[in-house]
Amino acid sequence: MSNLKSNLTTEITSTISVLQSNTMSTPTPDPAPQKVSAQEKAQQLGVGKLSRHIFLCAGPNCCTPEAGAPVWEYLKNRLNELGVNKGDGAIYRTKAACLRLCNQGPIAVVYPDGNWYRDVTIENLERIIQEHLIGGRVVEELVVAHDELETPRIRNDQDLNLSEVGGA
Fold it and tell me: Is residue 62 one of the residues assigned to a domain?
């Protein structure tokens, strides 16, 4: 038994040594070079001149990923097909992991308007694209909340007790 234990220990030590030498001798590849800077890319894509931005939660909490994934793919393809996803006045889309409503999803929110939509199926998404994103008319029967962001909406230091949130 002692001989078996000694052989096993030797084998494990040898395996660890080989793994370490392989890991150390393999250089980590440099990250791929950036083609353009983020600032240049933002300028190319019209960031700063967007008309609207839709965030879509495609699950897993508000809906199953199987229900959310086709809606996300439809949104990407449809905005591209319509040619409204680039340049001045573009409509942007972002997939979110969670928008925190977690009911009646997929959930979407459109900014700067701040309209939150429920039950964003492909059929309802097409209405949101045509009526709201392009036409500027909110699809009221699908809206669960309105929260237009005002600038600035920042609490001042007197409203915020930093000691309560781990600050100063």
Answer: yes
DSSP strand E in 42-139: where? 52-57, 91-96, 107-111, 115-117
* pLDDT per position as a tens digit, 97-116: 899 998 999 999 999 999 99
With respect to residue 112, please indicate whether it lies within any of the assigned structural domains: yes
Nearest Cα to 119, choosing from 90, 101, 142, 147?
142
Domain count, the chain: 1
Cα dihedral: 121, 127, 132, 136 (round 10): 180
pTM of the model: 0.69
Instruction: Let me know: does 62 contact 102? Beta carbons within 8 Å.
Output: yes
- Domain assignment present for 1: no
Calpha distance 55→116 (Å, rounded) = 9
Kindly state whether residue 130 falls inside one of the protein's structural domains.
Answer: yes
